[in-house]
Amino acid sequence: MPLITYREAIRHALSEELDRDPNVVIMGEEVAQFNGAYKVTEGLLAKYGPKRIVDTPISEAGFIGAGIGASMLGIRPVMELMFWSFYSVAFDQILNNAANVRYMSGGQINCPIVIRGPANGGTNVGATHSHTPENVLANHPGVKVVVPATAYDAKGLLKSAIRDNDPVFFLENTMLYGEKGEVPEGEYTIPLGVAEIKRAGTDLSIITYGRSVLYALAAAERLAAEKKVSVEVVDLRSIRPLDVDTVLASVARTHRVLIVEEQKPFASVGAQLAFTIQREAFDELDAPIHRVTTVDAPAIYSSPVEIEQLPTPNRVYLEALKVLA
Amino acid sequence: MSTKSTASSVTPQPEGAKGPGDPRQAPINARLKPADKIELYRTMVRIRRFEERSLRAYQAKKIGGFLHLYIGQEAVAVGCCSLMGPNDHVITAYRDHGHAIAVGMDTKPLMAELYGKITGCSKGKGGSMHYFDPSRNFWGGHGIVGGQIPLGTGLAYALKYKGLKGAAMAFMGDGAVNQGAVHEAYNLAALWDLPVIFVIENNGYSMGTSQARSSAGDLARRAEGYHMAWGVCNGHDVLEVRSVMNEFLQRAREQSKPAVVEIKTYRYRGHSVADPDRTYRDKSEIEEYQRTKDPINVYRTALITNKVFDEAAADQIDTEARAEADVAADFAEASPFPTADDIQKDVYWETDNPSQRTSGGRLFFT
């Protein structure tokens, strides 16, 4: 199977869906002539032209709102946020209009929009550009939230997201854009809301998603080598819908849970997950659920400390030992 | 009336000058048959009687929440929506009852929505501020000041993308013009030549703050900063609304050009029924407008003067409108509320269409 980057996998998904459906439009800041701030959309303008690949002004409330309005009339806009951190200036459009319009119209209006872009810290750009809003987004019934960790998942999930009739928020990671993975050529989709066990194990379940999957896998290898511990790594892939069944089945196998997420701890995705696990698998647990999150402060600029503020393989390793103790 | 424009085909007129003659002589109005004129009148009366009936229901505690009444502004929605062709679309803010009736929605589900009943136009899930009827090209009904304006711009984007000769009318109040999202939408519409008319229904007050205390400069003239055409017209004269809006709508449909149109109007009631209306204007101001510029009286007098109908026929329309409002209230009263089982319906397309669901996992949580 060809090895391609996460960035290329997303581009392939966009290109295939542009070919498949004439109502798919790519919009965002610098997506066309500039070839994408992170080069995800590189070459698409040349291939599809300015009607399908549309540069917008720096005007997130305006263009995201326009995309939502266009989607109500049957266009399928795939909007790029240069950083998901900029969702705050389009908050009313994203979470009042896109999230609520189906409900408030009694089911008369659909909003088949995708908003995608990177949502991560660790890039030495300070607090304003390091938000991970998946918990905030997923707190709004009516929306779907997807956070792919690998190139293969990114392509298959994005294609499903574009075909979905509900608004889907697709959170990528600048630190993953260059990561290579095996991706088959041609058509495949991955359904939203289906987790994947990235590594099977029997002693501890690490429930995670996004870039933290890579750290969980690294920590799992170290735990196996140094402590002879068998760790299962469950990649949620999708936050809403959430594959609770796969999580609970893993808990039933290992009886110990560590949640790893690049989220601030208060009311995070992991907080919801921990509630659900204790509520539905209380008798399976042999230890309290632990979490590794971003250290609870705005994202620090200083590079070496910033790395420590986020989950790291070592932090995952140390916290896993506590769950296993 | 006056119209002004930059980079447009609309003839520039000096501010406050008379436009191209009497709006009655404008072709869009000259071609109205007596039945059409009576229908314009009837729609305005139906809106007013519907709202007066809804106010009584509110006072009787049949309706809760907010109730933003349109009374006094009827000629704006009726004039604008009477111009709609098959590819024209409407979106507005929370003072939306008039637009809903003007696009042809049945008043029974509109009243039932206010009562929070399952027979409401949004199944009791939207309320007064969130009426929708996409089958009539009516896209709401939006609660956040100015938040609907980017959506209206997107409707126009979709029309242009699909190559349809239509226009979107994105209505807002005078309070919305200071929201950032509105200016972002202006810029996009002008930058991309989108067929959208931004209609400012200027009733003089953004909630309890007068225009003089909230907005710098002229509202519609802000369009010049975006090289958009703009116009101003009186909103108490349904024919003037039609003649001015028709120019901009035709231009939008034919040339895919946006515009800002400020329609000067007035609301008789408070911002919402929760507004005691004692702090920011004098009662005499309301009475003066009612006496001289009430849109229904002005048109009624004109139609009687022009022998389109007589007093008795006008009164008959009024009687019928009151009866219709009562029927709507009776329908709402008799209708059931949604049940707790309805709370999680209409959230996701997928859960409402389970046989076509492609995703796995849970979409709802406890």
List keywords for this structure.
heterodimer; A: 325 residues; alpha/beta; Rossmann fold; 11 helices; 14 strands; B: 366 residues; seven-stranded mixed beta sheet; disordered N terminus
Your description of this structure?
The complex is a heterodimer of chains A (325) and B (366). Chain A has two domains: 3-182, Thiamin diphosphate (ThDP)-binding fold, Pyr/PP domains (Rossmann fold); 196-324, Rossmann fold (3-Layer(aba) Sandwich). Chain A is α/β, with parallel strands linked by helices. Chain A contains eleven helices and 14 strands. In chain A, helix 1 (6-20) runs parallel beside helix 6 (151-163). Chain B is α/β, with parallel strands linked by helices and 366 residues long. In chain B, the strands form two sheets. In chain B, strands 1-8-9-5-4-2-3 form a seven-stranded mixed β-sheet, sandwiched between helices. Chain B is globular, with a radius of gyration of 21 Å. Classes of the chains: A alpha/beta (325), B alpha/beta (366). At the A-B interface, helix 3, helix 4 and helix 9 of A face strand 3, helix 6, helix 7 and helix 13 of B.
Largest sheet, spatial ordering of strands of chain A: 3-2-4-5-7-6-12
Q: What is the rounded distance between the termini of chain B?
A: 58 Å
Q: Mean of the pLDDT scores of chain B?
A: 94
Regions of chain A with pLDDT < 50 over 5+ consecutive residues? none
How does the major sheet of chain A shape up? 7 strands, mixed
Largest sheet of chain B: 7 strands, mixed
pLDDT < 50 runs, ≥5 residues of chain B = 1-18
> What is the oligomeric state here?
heterodimer
Terminal residue distance of chain A: 41 Å
Strand content of chain B: 5-15%
